[in-house]
Amino acid sequence: MSDVADLPDDIEALKAMIAAQGAVIARQDAQLRHHQLLIEKLKARLDKQLRDRFGSSAEGLEQLQLMLEDLEITHSASLLASEPEPAPKDKPVRRPLPGHLPRTEQILELGDVCGDCGGKLKRVGEDVTEELEYVPGRFVVNRFIRPRMACSCCERFHQAPLPSRPIERGRPGPGLLAHVLVSKYADHLPLYRQSEIYAREGIDLERSTMADWVGKAATLLEPLADAIGAHVRAGTALHADDTPVDVLSPGHGKTKTGRVWVYARDERPWGSDAPPAAFYRFSMDRKGIRPAEQLKGYTGFMHADGYAGFEELYRSGTISEVACLAHIRRKFFEEAQSKGTPIAAEALTRIAALYAVEAEIRGQPPDQRAAARQAKARPVFDDLIRWLQSELPKISGKSDLAKAIRYALTRLPRLEVYLSNGHLEIDNNAAERGMRGLAIGRKNSYDRCQTSAQKTIIARPRRWLLFIRLQKTGRDAISVVAQTLIRGSIPHYARYVRKLSRSGGWHGTSPPQFLLEGSS
User: Pick from 241, 152, 223: which is nearest to 427 by CA?
Assistant: First the structure.
């Protein structure tokens, strides 16, 4: 009944109608939760099937990308072959091609005689059509000619010195060296593949030769590596994580398992202008002393998982722990997608409400973020803890769900500080995102993990992409290779070289501070 006048006057009848509507709403709510859980389960199954089929190897990922490319190409070809459809009323706006790209002009002259009447043509305007083209990179040979001069008085010989070069007495120029490094560490092209690519250009560059270049270039940017580490440690809070990595042991025919540690600083969620950055450290074990050594001198907050090795840092009193809600959610998600447990599904719904608050306040100042969390997230957070405490006695203590609840009840009190501090995040995803690069191009490990110790640094200050690789045999493990790009175009290599030269030269000791500054 849509009209109030149609409702019965009898109170009992009205109660019956309300009860019936309540039952309908309850059934709809149950169906909605069931559908939400079904969606989560189907997503999990799809993810699992993709992992099972393509795995985590680079070959599997490349195969998936090729399949997607084939589908896109086939779709484009079918559109081209089909009859053109009427243009939509609201055509998408085509953005102009980047203005920094060089232009070559071709003037298509028609002549000065009219093809219809034979009269003389005069120019009244022009139409310009731009086409984006790609010209493969070119190898060039720089010849440094230094006349030998003799003094007519003292008969001594004089000659201009060679300019500073990244590898003294080496043949690669800074642009080529930068290209090799970026291709390997940013574009995930192993050296042997680069060798094959260069061979198509008629250039013979053996993998072993480029490996030697990488090793010799490693010491150039140690000051910059230290500057990035200091920049990350200077933040109010950092994100920490680690992952295992296989390391080849020369002469033993087997691999060892080392650890790569990432420490990230990203203050964009609360509107800071500090450039986001992350630096990596390597160790051959996962002892708690490793993060203590790597974060020596740091004071502040640290987002992390429940790794016991971090406890020593927290006991020192200089570093305060901030737990990760994503880790808590993951355990409930696994339970929901594998068994369809209603309690796990309810936990996911409550956690989603906390993330909804974060979406609303992203980019706002810290004080506003803290106020919004206290008003909107605090009740949900406290109720989540109470609800988990009430549900735990109802299930088997040995079940995976009970383990997930106990983990949540242990970690949530260590996350509570984020509610009152707008500088902190709800999870540790910034560090986990930093680990994705290690999962891309796993074949790089053949070139990368042949030493007894290694380090990696990645930093992304604003539009700069700086990928730094630290590698050296020995216990100290401190060799550095790096490349900086703006928009990834080769002409910026020269700009990078000029700035680096002005900041102390290839072999100067001063960190090139411009690399940590923003770029418009």
Answer: 241
Q: 323: buried, middle or exposed (CB in 10 Å: 19+, 13-18, 0-12)?
A: buried
Q: How far apart are CA 159 and CA 137, in angstroms?
A: 34
Exposure class string for 47-80: b at 16+ Cβ within 10 A, else e: eeeeeeebeeebebbeeeeeeeeeeeeeeeeeee
pLDDT value at position 352?
96
Strand partners, 456: 469
Is there a contact between 439 and 496 (Cβ–Cβ < 8 Å)? no
DSSP secondary structure string for all residues of 78-95:
HHHHSPPPPPPSSPPPPP
pLDDT-derived band at 322, boundaries 50, 70, 90:
very high
**Is 519 in contact with 462 (CB distance < 8 Å)?**
yes
What residues contact 180, with CB distance under 8 A and at least 6 apart?
172, 191, 194, 210, 213, 214
What residue type is 203 in one-letter code?
Answer: I
Helical axes 491-502 vs 174-185, angle rounded to 10°: 110
Query: What are the tens digits of pLDDT across the range 206-256?
Result: 998 888 887 776 666 566 667 778 889 999 999 999 988 877 766 666 778
* Cβ atoms of 466 and 484 closer than 8 Å: yes
Residue 370: CB atoms within 10 Å:
20
| DSSP H/E element including 280 | strand 277-283
Residue 23 predicted with pLDDT over 80: yes
**Please, is 360 exposed, middle or buried when counting C-beta atoms within 10 Å of its C-beta (0-12, 13-18, 19+)?**
exposed
DSSP 8-state secondary structure symbol assigned to residue 113: B
pLDDT score at 223:
64
Residue 7: pLDDT over 60: yes
pLDDT value at residue 216: 74
Q: What number of CA atoms fall less than 13 Å from residue 78's CA on the CB side?
A: 6
Cβ atoms within 10 A of the Cβ of 286, count?
A: 16
Closest CA relative to residue 443, chosen from 60, 176, 179: 60
- DSSP secondary structure string for all residues of 6-32: GS-S-HHHHHHHHHHHHHHHHHHHHHH
Q: DSSP states of 301-341 as a string?
A: EEE----GGGHHHHHTSSEEEE--HHHHHHHHHHHHHHH--
Closest by CA position to 241, among listed 291, 185, 311, 314: 291
For residue 480, pLDDT over 50 is answered with: no
Token duo for residue 483: 């490349």
Sign of CA dihedral 501, 503, 504, 508: negative
How many C-beta atoms lie closer than 10 Å to residue 229's C-beta? 20
Beta bridge partners of 184: none
DSSP codes, 136-154: -------------EE-TTT
The structure tokens listed for 500 are: 């680096």
> Residue 235: left (phi > 0), alpha (psi -120 to 50), or beta?
beta
Structural element, H or E, at residue 445: helix 444-448
Tokens of 3: 């009209």
